[in-house]
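Can you give me the bound-state structure? Components:
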Amino acid sequence: MTEASGASGDGVERRVRVVLVDDHRMFRTGVQAEIGQTETTGVEVVGEAADVDQAVTVITATRPEVVLLDVHLPGGGGVEVLRRCAPMMGAAENAVRFLALSVSDAAEDVIGVIRGGARGYVTKTITGADLVDSIFRVQDGDAVFSPRLAGFVLDAFASTDAPPVDEDLDRLTQREREVLRLIARGYAYKEIAKQLFISVKTVESHVSAVLRKLQLSNRHELTRWATARRLV
Amino acid sequence: MPVATPRRATSSRAPEPEEPQPRKLYRSAEGRMLGGVARGLAGHLGLPVVWVRIVFLALFLADGMGALLYAVFWFVVPLGVGGVDAPRSVFETTLDGRRRLRKPDKGQVFALFALLVGAVTFVSNVQVGGNAGRYIWPTLLIGLGVVLVWRQADNARRAHWMEIGRRRRMLQIARGMAGVALVGMGLTAFLVVRGSAAQLGNVLTAALAVLVGIALLAGPWLVRMTQDLSEERLMRIRAQERAEVAAHVHDSVLHTLTLIQRNAEDAGEVRRLARAQERELRNWLYKPEGTGKEESEEPATLAEAVKRSAAEVEDKHGVPLEVVVVGDCPLDDKLAAQMQAAREAMVNAAKYGGEGGAVQVYAEVEGRTVFVSVRDRGPGFDLDSVPGDRMGVRESIIGRMQRNGGTARLRSAPDGGTEVELEMERAADA
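Here's the bound-state model for the whole set.
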C-alpha cells in the first residue's frame, strides 16, 4: 500500500466525506492536516469525535461515507461505535463505511473491529497518501488490509487441524492465501496483480472475500486462535 | 530500557540454608507431624527436631502443659517454609543420599511411637483422678477435631503458594468434616456429661436456634464483608499492576524524551530513539501475559528471533522495519542459519534501501517449511553487477542458505526495491 493511486490519480473528480473518531486531539489535527486539503486529496472532513457517544451523534448527523475509527476510545472503544452504528452500515447506497485506524498491536483489538464490521484496518504509521488511498478504497466497498492485519488473518486461519464447521467460510482458498501473504510481505495491489498474473480488480475481490469470511465465519476458529494466543 | 523485573513477594520463601539471614520463626510446612511447630522451632534454634519433640512430649506428660504450649505456638506462629533445612541436612549426610530413607522419617516414626506411649500414659494417669476422667474423653475429642481442622487450614494455606494438585481436594474436605464432627461429638459429650441425656434434645434445639439467629443477623454482613474483601484485594492487585506499568513507562519514556530533546538536531537519532521506545512499549503492552518480558535471554522460537534481529537492525541503522510473523516454531540449527541470513538481508535492506520507507520483514511457518522475506523499497541493484569481491550477499545470504540445505532467491529491480526470499525445511525431529 505504498502507492497513492485512487485519489491523487483521479485528482479532485471524486469527493469523499469523512468523520474522524479519535480521542487524541493532536492526532485528529495531524490527520486533518495531512488529508484534509479537499482540493488536492478529495477528502472532506465533515466531523470529528473524541468518544463513543460523540461519534455516534456526529456520524448520525453527518452521514459520512467513511469513518476513520480509532480502536481505543473512551466509552467502549471502536467496537461499541460499530455496534451502535450497525443500522447505518449495510449495503445501501448511502451506507457508512468504517476504516479502523489504530496504534494497537494487539490481535484481539484488530480482529475485534473487523468482526464488528469495519471494512479494513491500517496502522497509524501509514502515510497520508496511503491513507487517502485506503479511504477511497473503502468508499468503493473494498477491503483494506495492512500487512499486519494480513498476518493476523493468515495466522488465524492457518493450519487448523480441526475440520471447519462451515467449509466455505472457515477456510481461505489457495488464491486468497497467496494474496494475503503478498499483502503481509508489503506488496501493493498492483504488484500483487502483476505477481499473480491477475487483474487488480481480482485482487480486490479476493481481499473482499477474505474480509467477508473474517466477519462471517463462525467463531470456532477465531476463538481457538485467540485462546492459543492467550488473548481470551 | 532496562526492564524492571516484576517483583514477587519473596518474604515467605525459604532462605537458603547457607545464607546467613536472620532466622525468623516459622512453623514448618514440610516434614511436619502436626502443626510443624517442633520442626519450625528446631530450625529456628538450630537443634535436631527430635530433641524439640522430646521436650514437648515431656512437657505434655507434665499435666498436658506441652499440648497447651504447642497449641499456642500453632495458633500464633505463621506457617512458613523456613528453618527446615539446617537440621535435615545433618541427617542427610549420614545416609547415602537416598531421599526416601532419610533419617527424619525414621525419627518421625519414633516420635509418633513416643507420642502414642506418652498419650496412653497421660490418659491413664489422669483417669485415676476419678471424676475428672469424665471430662477427659470429650476434651481429647475436641482437641483432636481442632487439630484436624487447623491442620486443614494450614494445608489450604500452603496449597496457596505451593499449588498442590486438585486431586486431594476430596481428602481435604473429608478431613475438615471429620475434624468438625469430632469437635461436635466432644461438645455433645460435654453436654451429656454435665447434664442428663434427657436434656440433650432441649440443649441442642436451643443451640440450633441461637446459631440460626446469629446466622440470620450476621449473615448478610459477613457476605458483604467477604465481597468487600475480595474486591479490595482485586483493586490492590490492579493498583499494583498499574504501579508497575507506570514505573516502567515512566522511567523509560522520560529517559527517551530527555535523549530526544538533547538530540533534537539529529533527525536520524531522534527517529531511532523514538522507534526503539515505541517498540519496547508495544512489546511490553501487547505481549501476552506469561511469555516473559525480559529481553536478555536468547530467543528460543522463530518469531522471537526474527523480531529480535529486526529490532537490533532497526536500532543500529535507524530504519524502521515492519515485522509480520505468521505461525511459530522452535529454533533449530538450520533455522538459526536462516535467521543469520535473514539478519544479513535486513542489514542490507536497511543500509541500501532504507530511504524508500519501512523495510518489510515477513516470516511464515507452514508445516515444515519456514519462509522469510525481506523487502525494501530502495533503488534496487543488479546482482550480476556487484563486484566479485563483495561477498555480503553471495556468501552471507545465498551461500549460507545453500550450505544448510535451504534456498535463497533475490529479486531486485531498479526503482522496484529489493526482495530476499529465504526458504528452509525444519529439522525432522522438531
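A couple of observations. Chain A touches chain B at residues 2, 104-106, 125, 127, 147-148, 150-151, 154-155, 158-159, 181, 184-186, 229-231 (CB under 8 Å). The radius of gyration of chain A is 17 Å.
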